[in-house]
């Protein structure tokens, strides 16, 4: 359907927004090769994610 609509990629971008950075990076969503992910967070959240 996405190709039919003229979208550039076959899968949509998975966007996660978190203030705290408390997300489970072992979640399969973050390891699916065909589904890109983007995490939007604060500096504090970034620090937490960098140490997990």
Q: Can you tell me about this structure?
A:
With 52 residues, this protein is of the alpha+beta class. It has one domain. The chain contains 1 helix and 2 strands, in the order E-E-H. Strands 1-2 form a two-stranded parallel sheet. It is elongated. The model has no long low-confidence stretch (mean pLDDT 89).
Shape summary: elongated
Instruction: Specify the helix fraction band.
Output: 10-25%
In total, the number of domains comes to: 1
Query: Approximately what portion of the residues adopt beta-strand conformation?
Result: 15-25%
Mean pLDDT: 89
The spatial strand order of the largest sheet comes to 1-2
Q: What Rg is obtained from the alpha carbons, in whole angstroms?
A: 14 Å
Order of helices and strands: EEH
Low-pLDDT sequence parts: none
- Span of the ends, CA to CA: 37 Å
- The count of strands amounts to 2
Largest sheet: 2 strands, parallel
Note the total helix count: 1
Helix-strand makeup class: alpha+beta
How is the topology of this model organized?
Blueprint: E1 14-18, E2 37-41, H1 43-51
Parallel strand pairs: 1-2
Short overview:
By secondary structure, this protein is an alpha+beta fold. It has one helix and two strands.
What key phrases describe this protein's structure?
single chain; 52 residues; alpha+beta; two-stranded parallel sheet; 1 helix
């Amino acid at each position: 359907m996405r190709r039919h609509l003229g979208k550039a990629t076959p899968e949509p971008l998975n966007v996660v927004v978190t203030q705290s950075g408390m997300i489970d990076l072992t979640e399969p969503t973050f390891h699916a090769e065909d589904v890109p992910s983007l995490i939007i967070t604060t500096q504090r959240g970034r620090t937490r994610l960098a140490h997990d």
